[in-house]
């Protein structure tokens, strides 16, 4: 009986007593030694990356549940750096395909494709990571820095991403998501939440990107119908970097100078953010512009609530055809909030000025815009989104 | 006889028996190794250290399969830097493989699929690696084995390898043996490892017959060798099914792209016609859609097939050179499509 009880305790424990640490140092054979440790790890184990620069020739991957990869730090003298400058294969630097994984306190540099991708990896924690393309914004950089997709319970926090040619932090086709206290600099999109539900993007600094924070929903994907996204208490500053995304990608169409952009989605709340010096528009709402055949898809932003934000200067050099004229027509700068006119139920409580392009049907070309101040404010009752609650075991892993 | 001498003799006899036992090949395939069960000795039952531990072949060079290890070929094959492939299916005695529609064969627990990658012909043929798929009680397991230079032994390469190889035509390539995780990246469906290759429609009736499968494909894929003047549609869709669909289908590694290149998918948008990229990044190459009907040069599919650069090249794994014949076929197929109005 005692033995059974003991076994039950062992099974219930988040960190099994038999969990092992495997310490890997940089230097000769780092690729093989580190990859071998990742393959042979057992659930509960920790792979410890010693401080130093790991010169890697191929992508790394982890497919064991419950493993922690922990470095000595993300920057400075004691950083553990996975350096993919010499990468010869794979579509990302580090790929995670297992559940309950913790990645923390290391850096990924110059991955040839995405930096760190996790796919179908539930309960994943990205904590205090640096993912960087060290030459700064270039179209030849990888697409995404931190890239969880098709997952439930995603936590990305206190990390730094620079140089991604698509999005610094991109969460796609996932649910129950917290992205908080990150710094995202000089990416095309700073943070992008796409085709996902129930997300909180809070207390991040997004600066010198093309667009600061994007909340998108696209048709034709396994998961569509994104929404219930809170964007709150972020500093969204100086996102005026020329768009360096390769043509063809949806973010290539994001104008430089975009603060927060909402495309499609249902239930987005933009609250208590500080938006400063975003030259096109601080907050932008648009419908999906391309043709689609997906019957599940609704292309308009619906139930958007904008309140209690602080706006600095901005909107003076809108980066789209006719933008200058448009700004002039509005007295030299677009007002802080711009809609294409295709939203349903937009509630604004923090500014008197909202511009509309006056479009009346989805897919209508901008040449048919009839810009005006938006007079009609749908006074939707504010209902707080249910807070995103991650499993207690995730929070426990960080303690 | 003095006790000491008797002991020595006994020990010698035991030694002789042991030596004989290890030198003599066993009678058949070691099912315990396939199943991952601890055999005599017990060590490393999970990941057998050598290919020879399974006993699939009579000889160390793996040229002579044991009874029950059935050689087969595919009408259209995956491009792997021009490597030749020797494929085998093993089904344990008393069990039976079954057809399951036109797709993957249903292979019972205890079965194995082997694929040896080789360059050169006849005496010059050199084995590089043998990839093994084992159907164990808890599912399929994929393991890579790398051949030594002499071609006498293949050992487990859990972490894979990268090596320079001189191909028969004299070109040198940087060849990648996948690691265990990379095996799974292609072989995953709904979180579990699965075979990819042996589909009814891609196999010859004679090979199926040797597996005891009487079912025949209603519409077998054309032979790759027939691609000049063959059925372009079937060839192209067959090629994409074999080379791309293991990732590009629901439940597999590239499911989030929404691109579904399975042979049986008939929604034009799902196979990429007029479909914008999702997470392609610079892999899009400035193109707006995966397939632009009538315009291969504006199609992301062709762009990514024609690159060897990580982050652009597709497939992501398993090749370091371009498949010129495959590219030519897909170009012809796209050029042949009616342009969108």
Topology record:
The complex is a heterodimer of chains A (399) and B (341).
Chain A: H1 2-12, E1 21-24, H2 30-40, E2 46-49, E3 52-55, E4 58-62, E5 68-70, E6 80-83, E7 89-96, E8 102-104, E9 107-109, E10 114-119, E11 124-127, E12 130-132, E13 144-149, E14 152-157, E15 160-162, E16 167-172, E17 175-180, E18 183-185, E19 189-194, E20 197-202, E21 205-207, E22 211-216, E23 227-232, E24 235-237, E25 258-263, E26 266-271, E27 274-276, E28 281-286, E29 302-307, E30 310-311, H3 323-329, E31 337-339, E32 344-348, E33 354-356, E34 372-373, H4 392-398
Parallel strand pairs in A: 1-2, 2-5, 3-6, 4-7, 5-8, 6-9, 7-10, 8-11, 9-12, 10-13, 11-14, 12-15, 13-16, 14-17, 15-18, 16-19, 17-20, 18-21, 19-22, 20-23, 21-24, 22-25, 23-26, 24-27, 25-28, 26-29, 27-30, 28-31, 29-32, 31-33
Antiparallel strand pairs in A: 33-34
Chain B: H1 3-23, H2 31-35, E1 69-72, E2 84-90, E3 112-119, E4 126-136, E5 139-147, E6 154-156, E7 161-166, E8 172-177, H3 180-187, E9 188-189, E10 192-193, H4 205-210, H5 232-243, H6 300-305, H7 324-335
Antiparallel strand pairs in B: 1-2, 2-3, 3-4, 4-5, 5-6, 7-8, 9-10
Helix pairs in contact in B: 5-7
């Amino acid at each position: 009986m005692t033995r059974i009880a003991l076994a039950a305790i062992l099974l219930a424990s988040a960190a099994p007593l038999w969990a092992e640490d495997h310490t890997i140092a940089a230097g000769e054979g780092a690729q093989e030694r580190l990859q071998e440790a990742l393959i042979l790890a057992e659930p509960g184990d920790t792979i410890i990356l010693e401080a130093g620069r790991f010169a890697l020739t191929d992508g790394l991957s982890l497919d064991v549940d419950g493993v922690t990869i922990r470095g000595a730090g993300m920057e400075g003298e004691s950083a553990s750096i996975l350096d993919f400058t010499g990468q010869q294969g794979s579509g990302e630097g580090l790929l995670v395909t297992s559940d309950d994984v913790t990645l923390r306190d290391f850096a990924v540099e110059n991955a040839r494709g995405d930096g760190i991708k996790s796919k179908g990896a539930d309960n994943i924690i990205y904590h205090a990571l640096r993912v960087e393309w060290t030459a700064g914004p270039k179209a030849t950089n990888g697409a995404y820095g931190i890239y969880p997709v098709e997952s439930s319970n995603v936590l990305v926090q206190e990390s730094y991403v620079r140089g991604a040619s698509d999005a610094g932090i991109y969460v796609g086709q996932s649910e129950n998501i917290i992205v908080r206290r990150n710094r995202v600099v000089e990416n095309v999109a700073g943070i992008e939440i796409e085709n996902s539900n129930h997300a909180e993007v809070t207390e991040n600094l997004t600066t010198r990107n093309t667009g600061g924070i994007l909340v998108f929903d696209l048709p034709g994907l396994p998961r569509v119908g994104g929404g219930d996204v809170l964007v709150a208490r972020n500093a969204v500053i100086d996102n005026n970097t020329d768009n360096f995304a390769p043509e063809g990608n949806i973010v290539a169409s994001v104008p430089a100078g975009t603060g927060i952009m909402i495309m499609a989605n249902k239930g987005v709340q933009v609250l208590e953010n500080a938006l400063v010096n975003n030259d096109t528009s601080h907050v932008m709402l648009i419908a999906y512009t391309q043709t689609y055949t997906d019957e599940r898809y609704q292309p308009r932003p619906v139930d958007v609530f904008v309140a209690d934000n602080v706006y600095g200067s901005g909107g003076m050099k809108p980066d789209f055809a006719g933008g200058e004229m448009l700004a002039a027509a509005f007295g030299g700068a677009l007002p802080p909030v711009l809609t294409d006119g295709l939203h349903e139920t937009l509630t604004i409580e923090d500014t008197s000025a909202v511009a509309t392009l006056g479009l009346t049907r989805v897919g209508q070309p901008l040449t048919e815009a009839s810009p005006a101040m938006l007079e009609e404010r749908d006074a939707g009752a504010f209902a707080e989104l249910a807070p995103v609650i991650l499993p207690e075991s995730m929070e426990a892993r960080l303690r | 006889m003095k006790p000491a001498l008797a002991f020595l003799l006994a020990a010698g006899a035991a030694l002789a028996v042991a030596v004989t036992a290890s030198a003599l090949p066993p009678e058949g395939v070691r099912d315990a190794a396939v199943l991952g069960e601890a055999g005599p000795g017990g060590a490393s039952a999970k990941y057998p250290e050598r290919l020879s531990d399974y006993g699939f072949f009579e000889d160390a060079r793996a040229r002579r399969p044991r009874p029950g290890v059935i050689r087969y070929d595919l009408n259209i094959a995956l491009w792997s830097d021009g490597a030749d492939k020797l494929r085998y299916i093993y089904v344990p005695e008393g069990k039976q493989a079954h057809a399951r529609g036109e797709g993957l064969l249903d292979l019972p627990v205890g079965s194995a699929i082997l694929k040896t990658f080789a360059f050169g012909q006849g005496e010059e043929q050199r084995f590089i690696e043998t990839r093994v798929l084992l159907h164990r009680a808890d599912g399929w397991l994929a393991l890579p084995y790398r051949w030594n230079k002499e071609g006498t032994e293949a050992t487990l390469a859990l972490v894979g390898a990268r090596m320079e190889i001189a191909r028969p035509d004299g070109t040198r390539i940087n060849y990648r043996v996948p690691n265990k995780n990379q095996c799974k990246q292609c072989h995953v469906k709904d979180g579990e490892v699965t075979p990819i290759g042996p589909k009814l429609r891609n196999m010859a009736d004679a090979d199926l017959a040797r597996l005891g499968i009487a079912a025949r494909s209603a519409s077998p894929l054309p032979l790759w060798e027939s691609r000049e003047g063959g059925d372009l549609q079937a060839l192209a869709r067959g090629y994409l099914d074999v080379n791309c669909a293991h990732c590009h289908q629901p439940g597999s590694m590239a499911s989030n792209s929404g691109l579904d290149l399975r042979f049986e998918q008939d929604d034009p948008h799902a196979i990429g016609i007029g479909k914008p990229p999702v997470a392609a990044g610079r892999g899009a190459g400035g193109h707006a859609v995966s397939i632009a009907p009538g315009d291969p040069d504006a199609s992301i599919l062709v762009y990514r097939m024609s690159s060897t650069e990580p982050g652009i090249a597709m497939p992501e794994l398993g090749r370091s050179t371009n498949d010129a014949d495959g590219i030519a076929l897909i170009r012809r197929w796209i050029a042949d499509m009616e342009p969108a109005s």
